[in-house]
Amino acid sequence: MLFLKRLLDFYINSSIHVALSVYALVRMTGFLFQITIIEACASFAFFGTIVGYNFVKYDALARTQKLQMRTQLKAIALLSFLSLLMAVYCFLWLERITQLIALLFFGITLLYTLPFFPNKKNARNWAGVKIYIVALCWVGVTLFLPIINAEVPLTTYVFLVAIQRFILIFVLILIFEIIDLKQDDPHLKTVPQQIGVERTKKLGSMLMLVFVGLEFLYADFNYTTLILKTGIAITVLLFLLFANEKKTKYYSSFWAESIPVLWWVLLLLFQ
What we know:
By secondary structure, this protein is an all-alpha fold. Helix content is 73%, strand content 0%. Keywords: Membrane, Transmembrane, Transmembrane helix.
């Protein structure tokens, strides 16, 4: 059991699980827009997420020498390096415009992590903006990157999907912020810090109603998709409503983070 727990911790701490969620959303984009050649984008997103998330999580601590290179961290460093090589390889298979957009998101990751201006904090510590940066990056990488790479027209349908996906990621991040409320620096001004946990849950609940309501705006509206998205919305809502500071990291970092994968699997099964 101890070995399995360590294996699970490595799986979560090395960002493989969050990368799998990103991969699932990219493949979902391929399914929704009938993009047959999607593997380069999906693999780039998967390996790039491992590199990006690990860089964000461990770079600052490593630079200040507050992080000892234990066995697990050495393994994470090795995995990140191998993932970087794979991300670069997949990057070479993308279209030129897609490469430029990918570099833009790489720049946002650097801005999110490194302080570029003297005596200034990085974007991660800019009060109140963290949640928007992360949600926008997820939408950009999982939706617009594969769409632009496949030269799919940017129609109203694309932007409706983008809004729904932004809402989903935004509410999932709210779950993380509630659970991390005691650990987060008060100066971060996360949503629960600014409006309280109960109002955060009400905000998330209203956003999930919007998430479902947007389904009625689709030209090819069908009840199967509505039921599927309603089920996902209810799942997210339950995770949000039961979130509190006493929950373990597995509640958000494993179970809540699995919802995009669940959505992709259900989409394949019912469509």
